[in-house]
Amino acid sequence: MAKLEEIKYLVEEGETKKIATNVQEALDEGIAAEDILQIMIDSMRVIGDKFSTGDIYIPEMLMAAKAMTNGLDVLKPLLAASDSTTSLGTCVIGTVEGDLHDIGKNLVSVMLESVGFDIVDLGVDVPTTRWIEAIKEHQNVTLVACSALLTTTFPGMKETVRAMKDSGLSGFKVIIGGASVNQKLADDIGADGYSEDAGSAAVKAVELVSSMQ
Ligand code: B1M
Question: For ligand 1, atom 68, which residue shows the shortest CA distance?
Answer without folding.
Answer: 104
